[in-house]
Specification:
mainly beta; 2 helices
Amino acid sequence: MTTDAKLTKEQEAMFQPGCFVVLHPDSKHLDAGRVGKIVSRKGGEMLVEFFSDELIGKTEYSTIPLGHWGPVPEFFVEEYEPRAKKRGWRVSERGMKMFRDLGWGYTAATEGKA
């Protein structure tokens, strides 16, 4: 999907603030496969949160355009803490089973292992 593609009503609903997305696993980006939560979106531009680190007061965001993300159903996602006071999201064990069954790509980051 390109950033200038017209989205259907159903697709629009999957790319709204509060929805979960995954950065395309074949991306050359350091965070390929990482699950994030949309903070804001205007057209094809999105602000996606990856991690919130309350220990040092830092949050990690991405501004990669919409066409590089895939929607992830909320019931596939779980919050986790890779270390104390650092919160992020990953695809749950149940969600990963569905990812594999559907042939969807993923990385260690998708599972919260990177």
